[in-house]
Amino acid sequence: MIDRTNDVQALDAAHVLQTYRRAPVTFERGDGVWLFDTAGRGYLDLLSGIGVASLGHAHPRLARAIADQASTLLHTSNLYHHPLQAPLAARLAALSGLERVFFCNSGTEANEACLKFARRYWHARGEPRPGLVALEHAFHGRTFGALSATWDEHYRAPFAPLVPGVTWVSPDRPADLDAAVTSATAAIVLEPIQGEGGVRPIPSAFAAAVREACARTGALLVADEVQCGLGRTGAVLHSDTLGLKPDLVALGKALGGGVPVGAALVSHDVAAAVAPGDHGTTYGGNLLACRAALVFLEELVDRGLLEHVREAGAHLKRGLRRLAAAHPEVVEVRGAGLMRGVVLDRDAGPVVETALARGVLVNRTAGSVVRLLPPLTITEAEIDQGLERLDAALTDVLARSAS
Ligand SMILES: Cc1ncc(COP(=O)(O)O)c(C=O)c1O
Predict the structure, then answer these.
(1) What fold does the segment set 64-302 form as a domain?
(2) Among 104, 241, 292, 314, fewest CB within 10 Å belongs to which?
(3) Which of the four pLDDT bands, split at 50, 70 and 90, describes residue 1?
(4) pTM
């Protein structure tokens, strides 16, 4: 029997391009909110693969559907019809109020598609608009278009020159939209809750100013709901909660429950500007991806998961408030539903590492924020158990820094 932990980690160090800083743990099995490493140790997963394992791990209905699809038909390309893509598009359209769907494979591709379709819209009207307005602290992905609208200079600088025409605004200064959004602006692109930027909800005053700027200039609104959408906060789209009516929405992560699938949802008017050949991708919306996404949406909408998230999210919020009250190094708890950030007065790295050692998975974002994105299926008892472990990790780190 090989020592899977050491072999895998050594092989990774030797042969995988080192674009990730991985924690020294190898997971080989999951069950609900639990992950198990190669030594059989269980960890409570409060991160769900960064918001992807929305139904938890090894979800029985999803697993059965995937296995059934694998033994029926996986992929035919977009040269032909298959029975699952159009019903999934119809379902997403009905849920979002946006008429048409382009399928892709990831969040960054969904944003890439939205940005291209926004420019396509203005091109079709005979008044090309190159400009994009993006937000400070935004994260939209790593491909060139999405990266160009991503705030962190550290992600962008090594790959310059990027797509030109991006103007940055701070979500804390809504009045700046007056000058930033003009008749040359194709679209404003925003995450209703900024995830990688530190779980920062868009302030309602900024959302109101976005509505006003779009109405004033005709600029389209792209909502990147890759992380905060699809039930994460208890709503199908978090834009709705902010009173925003986007023309385009980017989806990813939770949609396939672990099977890679992304989607760009577009309004009737934007769809009218897009012609065959304008955009495409080989894998987009194949049978496996669509089957998984249909199961996820059934769970979310028809089988009560949305209501569950609202209750579980409120429970998590109460628990995190207690945690904050007990630890002076917690300066704020932000977010909504099952998307929460615990803002520390220091680097969150040691807390995340200590939490892993105590058997709970969270991650660090924006330096000082401990991020929680548990499976949407997490129970209140599991939340309590996770928070107990996080509480112990915070106590450990505080004790170490005091000594
Ligand atoms: C809001 C948001 N948009 C886009 C992306 C990129 O998604 P992907 O990593 O699937 O390309 C992410 C990933 O974290 C995200 O959080």
Answers:
(1) Aspartate Aminotransferase; domain 2 (3.40.640)
(2) 314
(3) very low
(4) 0.98
